[in-house]
Amino acid sequence: MYRRISALVVLLLVLVSVNTTVFAYETSSSPRIVIGRKMDTPVFNAGEEVRLAIPLDNDSTMKARHIIMYPVIEDPNEFPFEIDKATIKRSVGSISGQSSEKVPFYFKVKENAQDKVYTINFKVDYETENGSSNSDSQNLYIRITNDKVQPNIKIADVKLPGKEIPSGKVSRIELDLNNKSDLDIKDLEVKITGFDNKITLSDYVDTQRVESIKAKEYAKVKYNIKVDSEVESGTYSLTLEMKYKDKYDKEYEQKQNIYLPVSGEDDQELNLALENISSPKEVSPNEDFSLSFNLKNNSPYDAKSVKVTVDAGESILPKSSSIKSVGTLGAGKGQSLEFVLFPKDGAESKNYPVKVSVEYKISGEKTQTFEQYVGIFVDDKGVSQNPKIIIDNYNYGNDFIKAGEEFNLDLSFFNTNSAKTVKNIKVTLKPEGGIFSPVGSSNSFFIENIGSKSRASKTMKLKTKPDAKYQDYNIVVSMEYEDGSGSKYTAEETIGVPVIQDSRLVVSDVELPDEVFANTPTNISVDFYNMGRSQIRNLIINTKGDFRIKNGTLYVGNLEAGSDNYYDATIIPEKEGGAKGAVTFEFDDEVGNHQIIEKEISINAQKEPEIEMPEMPEPEEKDSSKMKWIVGLVILGVGGFLFYKKRKKKTEEVGIDE
6, 40, 167, 401: which has the highest count of C-beta atoms within 10 A? Predict the structure, then answer.
């Protein structure tokens, strides 16, 4: 029995020795490296050069050698750092058991990195002391913030040869493309589409290429557009399809519409003007005088079959021919003209309007007309003693009259004769081109009499045509009257009334994303349109509010009638909760009146999402558990042996006593 127990004890001691040897072998030959234990989530800004120090912990008791650490890059486009093959791998000679080492990486954050938390797998390759290879890896989390405006091209301006593209011609349009972003772009391809059989490309080149556009800068592309002669007036839409890359070769695609105003043949007009007008300050009856000027074509198109006519009515007659044929007046060209006229005998002392009419054609057979008046003052030197009525004052209630509105025209009639009374006065208003029409009455009225050196006043209610253009319009006031002896007289006066179109800037609501977060850049945008018939000048757009603002001010300048544009900016709420602001449009109308339009911004910023770093798993204490089992077995074995010896001794003592 004793031999059996001795054998059992020897066996337990052998087991303890074997297990201890195995434990020692495993501990010495299996180092384990933990990457980034208890490492806080680093936060880097786009475009910055950064240092990323990652801790490595050798949890074993043995040394790890020839350590190489690197990020695992599966998709370079999704990697937030610029890749430098010379520095992407870092090496460490060795890390002793139960020691740690920080491995520094030097990166530059890509300017186009997304504003988010990136998961990057880092891997370490190393050798054990016995020369075998091993590796460990771990996902680390890196927060990238990016308040840079990402690649985005906007059409800043569409330049036409004139205000509109004429039908029946080929016109070159020039597009100003603005790189609104904070990044350079390259390899830009701009394709224009959306044509039909009436609006086409004249040279069949639909794609323009631009090598690069730096951040915030502009580039131009040009296309030759052919408009069929049968196209009616209106605004026509074409589409720009743009493809380009950023500096990291990431590809982008965009589509944007452009709107081209087209004038049909029935609506086309050229910009003709009378320049360097020369005429005498005053002339006497029967005195010849010269009226000269330069007829200038300020349009990009030729004026054809040009004919110029002067007409001063019955009191001023032509001495030379009143009609001159110019033929074709080329784009940007001028032609000097001179007419000789004289006031006839008996012409009264007053200012006479001389009408200069210019007829021309653009294409086809339709004749266009341009008219301008030149005033000639005739002084009869007291020769005439006939009573004369003049308009010595008139008022229309404002500096300008808006198209489509009614207004009161106050007229003051003055009898200049110092001895004679005039009576039975019939006054007729003849507005130029039918721009003004009477309201509630005819265009004539009656004044019973006006005494010598006396005045009479009359008010007419008129309405302006809704489509009247911005300019001064003449109203000819024709008067028929008698003196005390019944002699009949006529007189005409011309007055001018300036007409403007009401400015009509239409602004869309501010576009916001569905969710807005505190301390996170948020893009806003607004579309705006000039829906009026007049030009808007000095347009400036600004954003204000209870938040930080980036790229908040935009100077547009002039916005033609029928034009549209856009505005975008970046706002950054600095705290959670509600915040208000506004996008403000300030501009001047055609006559300099300053106007302001505001569009409200209302946001409710949510809490910035928190990024939790997952806890690194603690290494399992396999060696410690094995040791506990071995010690337990030894204790049990020794305890059992002592218990057996004690029991045997007690039994022997009992046997002796018996």
Answer: 167
